[in-house]
Specification:
Belongs to the AOR/FOR family. By secondary structure, this protein is of the alpha+beta class. The chain contains 27 helices and 17 strands. Among the domains are: 201 residues, Aldehyde Ferredoxin Oxidoreductase,  A, domain 1; 185 residues, Aldehyde Ferredoxin Oxidoreductase Protein, subunit A, domain 2 (Orthogonal Bundle), CATH 1.10.569.10. It has a 6-stranded mixed β-sheet with strand order 2-1-6-3-4-5, with helices on both faces. It starts with 6 loop residues before the first strand and ends with a helix. The protein binds tungstopterin. Tungstopterin binds next to strand 5, strand 11, helix 11, helix 12 and helix 13.
Length: 612
Amino acid sequence: MFGWGGRVLRIDLSKRRFIVQSLDPSLAQNYIGGRGFAAKTLWDELPPGVDPLSPLNKLILAVGPLTALPIPNSGKLLVASKSPLTGGYGDGNIGTWLAVHMRRAGIDMMIIEGKAEKPTYLYIENKGDEFRVDFNNAEDLWGLDTFTTEDKLKTMHGSDVGMVLIGPAGERLVRFATIVAQKGRSGGRPGMGAVMGSKNLKAIIMRGQGDVKVADPMLRKMGVDAIVATKSKPNYPFWMRQGTTSTVEWAQEASVLPTYNYTEGQFDDYEKIGGFSVEKNKVMTRSCPQCVMACGHVVKDTENEPAELDYENIAMLGSNLGIGDLAKVAHLNRIADMMGMDTISLGSTLGFAMEASERGLLKEGIEWGDYKRAVEVATDIALQRTELGKLLGKGVRAASMVLGPEATEFAMHVKGLEISAYDCHAAPGMALAFSTSPIGAHHKDAWLISWEVQRGRFDYTREKAEKLVEMQNIRGGLFETIVTCRFPWVEVGLELDWYFRLFRAATGMDMNMETLSTISNRIYTLIRAFWVREYGHWDRAYDTPPQKWFKRPLSRGPLRGAKLDYDGYQRLLNWYYELRGWDERGIPRKETLIRLGLNFVIPQLGSKVNLN
Ligand code: PTT
């Protein structure tokens, strides 16, 4: 089989055993890799309704057929599990050398099961078909931040290894703890770090050896050509200067920059934290392996230490909290990276606490723009050391349920995942994208907003639902299954056809928009079935954005008075369901399951809900 390594490495932490299994070729054919493998494995292997923090949950690490090949930005890894934050399917896409080493060793997927008796880290290596997995004692590392842990492990094992790890937040089961690599790459927003922590697993290290076999030897030349094409795009030089951080100025202009817990779409001090400010203060850039578009812009924080920034981090820890100072934002970002927490959820959680304090719902609260207190509370969350830290560490959905009905109106999440950094008072299509994302409110499956702003942001048209499905199929269906970075396509405009050609050269299999759409529909529908099975029921309310955007209009800026229209939104949702072949509740129809080859889902799903 070309393009895939053909091996699955299954590791049982409870029994301290491992086994190398053959990859089922039909899995490769029907689900490609990455998210496809994760969704199918979690459906097949998890007991329905399992507690995400119990040993019965599984952590999946999966590459895809284009991962680590000599093509633009290919050093990516998909991490997935049942999420302790949302209770549904969760995944993230992290840049790490571990992906490269997995490919060298011919491992397409690792499945981590059980729970180690004591804090443990895994060291994995191979010589051809011979694998070694050491279950090493990590008691000395438990409690250490991610930067120190990485340094120590590299001193012990050399720096030519691949490694992912967790920080104190993951160990203490903060529900939005992430998996971290290379001091600043963070993946698995819906609490994949907490799943690792629940398994007493501090780190996974791998030294893989071997070559990836591809169908067409011309792939190398094609990859070089794709790199040249990427670098010659007109937008490339500006991208290299500012990366995603230039989005701050764009979002301000478009009134979508989350400000004061998504109450407004513009922030007075946006220039101080914008792309030009980052460019001026930048000391270096950081990137994933095999990257030609480094997106991690590093500036010095308030302690003169380096911190890596992206747009999401700046908006969520800056404007959303009323903090208009780049070094302060950078420091909050560094805390998140060192502790192993997601910056988007951290920013949303702090913003929620600020609004709750303003409304008198929290006693020992935190005021808008209070940086010192934000640092304190962020650390309390990571270390789970105060009542407030413990409350917020469960995420805004759980915290709002404790604070009462008023709080649920400004808890900015969908399905329990805090919303990424786009205010949607005047962006119904983007609100739909957040609300139908397969992991909860993340932007990665469809960044509809720039298209929507140009196209007519106040419209509620079928075209928006169609565009959303098209985008999801490309971003979620292609990039999360071939497992490479989408930035060459999305940010500088490398034509999609490159990926189809590279896929063909790697695997010998054909791929075009039509085949992609079938595979993608299959994966989105399987993931929806997983959510329904785990929740035991389904309701359109789970696919609806927070009340604030419907009820509380923007009070400033050129779009003053704008808010979402509830009936208009429901129309968009109906069209979306129809396009996916799901019924009016958002549950896949029986005929859709059969058409997509998901017949195996019917018995379990049918035992939870009536299928139409
Ligand atoms: C992603 C999410 C994002 S999306 C950002 S900024 W972005 C935040 N970054 C964080 C960070 O940094 N530190 C931290 N402690 N938490 C953070 N949380 C947030 O995590 C990321 C890049 C980026 S930067 C983006 S958009 C693209 N995402 C891709 C994707 O999802 N799929 C894909 N095939 N290619 C992508 N390329 C780009 O990769 P999650 P990373 Mg991340 C400091 O993982 O869970 O998806 O959350 O992985 O290696 O950092 O790369 O403006």
